[in-house]
């Protein structure tokens, strides 16, 4: 919901660049940055779960294990 307006703004702001880039390079940079942020967030959630919640997200235990954290 937020990314399409940002991409449109990047396209509009960079459409007058020389060499016919038309802002697609900068849209790709935006997606690379977004992917990097998602990777860091995912690693943070994984490490938090592993250290603080005893690796609950990876367990195959039933819901009784989960209920102690709610």
Report the span from N to C terminus. 30 Å
SSE string, helix = H, strand = E? HHH
Structure annotation, total helices:
3
Characterize the largest beta sheet: strand count, sense, and whether it forms a barrel. Answer: none
* Average pLDDT figure: 82
| Strand content bin | under 5%
Helical amount: 55-70%
Low-pLDDT regions: none
Counting helices, strands and paired strands, the structural category is mainly alpha
Summed up, the domain count is 1
Q: Radius of gyration over alpha carbons?
A: 20 Å
* Strand segment count: 0
Shape: rod-shaped
- Assembly state: single chain
Write a concise keyword list for the protein shown above:
70 residues, mainly alpha, 64% helix, single chain, rod-shaped, 3 helices
Describe the protein in words.
By secondary structure, this protein is mostly helical. It has one domain. Helix content is 64%, strand content 0%. It has 3 helices and no strands. The longest helix is centred in the middle third of the chain and has 29 residues, at 24-52. The radius of gyration is 20 Å and the shape is rod-shaped. The two termini are 30 Å apart. The mean pLDDT is 82.
Question: In short, what is this structure?
Answer:
The chain is an all-alpha fold.
Blueprint of the fold:
Blueprint: H1 3-13, H2 24-52, H3 63-67
